[in-house]
């Protein structure tokens, strides 16, 4: 299945999630911002390498945002690149706020753990305690909702999930749709990233605390930690200093499509800054709001995902973190316990290679070699190229990649998922929009290409069936 969704992540760090084509997940202006660094380390070769690396992504129109890297209590690197508003030429600053998508999940998970600490719920509670009419609710625990082993269908699997994001949906109406969806598997037996599980957790916070999700997060987490630039996004309130979200492709940059913040709710409706996310992460790992024993449990899991945090190994470097995405926004946080590093980037253009970016930043701070990013050079789309690749490619029973033409453009759609435009970079190779791999087709036979393979961050293979 293809990595595609937002608020996306992949098992481990995005959670850092991405789920199937679910997980298929001009330097217009660069304003380096050195405010808050003031460190001699800022001029070290590694810091210069970091800046050059991010500048290269910006020059390729693949980064527009802020980066913060800290070690312990010291900021090593803090820079902002590009514009918060391209219409008004407003540069991004350290206090610029970004929607953080699924990086909301660590906050939601902390809220549940605080309620457990207060004796108001238990992680072994069954979902039936709070939602008795939901299928399998008597076998699903809060712990399984936290670590994505509940088997509940991710609402991103809804064929019209993007359209629903522009409607007057509520968390309750989304969950009502789930009543018609059978469980994907027996709870506790597999990992499958589910934003829907975090909708439940947000509603449970409201039930148990007697407060709105927003009020609870503000009063129990944001205010005690003095996270003054972090909050819950609202459909009606203006968020001061919020960067405008954009969507870029090799062809153009445009305003990101509208989203109703009530759709993602506790799975991804917050905004923040790198500094606030650093302070939040420090509070979690230093057990400022929870006992040390609970903090240790938070990061322990056999599923590469703890309680709201992805657990990943980058070539022997263990990290805890999360990716986030929202229409027009992409972000990532990683904490490296062995070296006490914190790495964060937030952007207001969803054409950001988040997995590659985080992986490379981690390597750079550890002194490992990283190749500079290459720009995507597209070529003209010909009728012969189209006739060669159009068709259906079977990944597995029930999962087909449909390559089709619309308005003289090529698109790919996985069964039940949104379409992605294919941009030709060679006669048989195409780049995706918003994704971190390319689609390579085999040399044509009598009926065109016999197979389609993803290269880069995915090695998915599909065989032509039509």
Structure description:
With about 475 residues, the chain is of the alpha+beta class. The protein has helices at about 45-60, 105-115, 140-145, 160-165, 170-180, 195-210, 215-220, 275-285, 290-300, 355-365, 385-390, and strands at about 65-70, 75-80, 85, 90, 100, 230, 245-250, 255, 270, 310-315, 315-325, 330-335, 340-345, 390-395, 400-405, 410-415, 420-425, 430, 435-440, 445, 450, 450-455, 460-465. It has 2 domains: about 1-375, Beta-lactamase, CATH 3.40.710; about 385-465, Lipocalin. The protein contains 11 helices and 23 strands. A hairpin with a 4-residue loop joins strand 22 (about 450-455) and strand 23 (about 460-465).
CATH homologous superfamily of the largest domain - what is it?
Answer: DD-peptidase/beta-lactamase superfamily
Mean pLDDT level: 87
Q: How many strand segments?
A: 23
The CATH class of the largest domain turns out to be Alpha Beta
Figure out the total of helices: 11
Largest sheet: 8 strands, antiparallel, barrel
């Amino acid at each position: 299945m293809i990595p595609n969704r937002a608020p996306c992540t992949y098992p481990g760090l995005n959670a850092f999630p991405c789920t199937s084509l679910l997980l298929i997940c001009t330097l217009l202006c660069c304003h380096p911002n050195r405010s808050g660094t003031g460190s001699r380390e800022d001029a070290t070769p590694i810091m210069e390498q970091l800046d050059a690396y991010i500048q290269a992504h910006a020059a390729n129109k693949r980064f527009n945002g802020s980066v913060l890297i800290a070690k312990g209590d010291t900021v090593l690197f803090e820079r902002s690149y590009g514009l918060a508003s391209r219409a008004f030429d407003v540069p991004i600053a350290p206090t610029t706020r970004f929607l953080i998508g699924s990086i909301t999940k660590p906050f939601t998970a902390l809220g549940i753990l605080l309620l457990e600490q207060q004796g108001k719920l238990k992680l072994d509670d069954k979902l039936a305690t709070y939602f008795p009419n939901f299928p399998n609710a008597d076998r699903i625990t809060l712990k399984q909702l936290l670590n994505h082993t509940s088997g509940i269908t991710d609402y991103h699997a809804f064929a019209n999930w993007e359209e629903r994001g522009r409607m007057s949906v509520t968390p309750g109406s989304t969950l009502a749709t789930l009543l018609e969806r059978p469980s994907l598997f027996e709870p506790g037996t597999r990992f499958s990233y589910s934003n829907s599980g975090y909708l439940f957790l947000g509603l449970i916070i409201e039930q148990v605390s007697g407060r709105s999700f927003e009020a609870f997060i503000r009063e129990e987490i944001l205010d005690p930690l003095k996270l003054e630039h972090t909050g819950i996004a609202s459909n009606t309130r203006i968020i001061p200093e919020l960067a405008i979200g954009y969507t870029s492709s090799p062809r153009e940059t445009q305003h990101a499509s509208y989203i109703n913040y009530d759709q993602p709710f506790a799975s991804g409706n917050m905004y923040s800054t790198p500094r606030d996310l650093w302070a939040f992460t420090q509070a979690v790992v230093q057990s400022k709001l929870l006992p040390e024993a609970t903090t240790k449990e938070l990061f322990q899991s056999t599923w590469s995902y703890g309680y709201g945090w992805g657990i990943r190994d980058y070539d022997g470097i263990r990290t805890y973190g999360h990716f986030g995405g929202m229409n027009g926004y992409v972000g990532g946080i990683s904490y490296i316990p062995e070296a006490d590093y914190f790495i964060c980037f937030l952007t207001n253009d969803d054409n950001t290679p988040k997995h590659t970016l985080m992986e490379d930043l981690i390597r750079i701070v550890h002194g490992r070699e990283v190749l500079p990013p290459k720009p995507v050079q597209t070529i003209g789309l010909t009728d012969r190229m189209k006739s060669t690749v159009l068709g259906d490619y079977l990944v597995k029973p029930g999962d087909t990649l449909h390559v089709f033409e619309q308005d003289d453009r090529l698109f790919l759609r996985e069964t039940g998922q949104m379409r992605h435009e294919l941009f030709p970079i060679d006669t048989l190779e195409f780049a995706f929009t918003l994704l971190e791999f390319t689609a390579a087709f085999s040399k044509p036979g009598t009926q065109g290409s016999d197979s389609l393979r993803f290269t880069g961050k995915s090695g998915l293979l599909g065989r032509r069936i039509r």
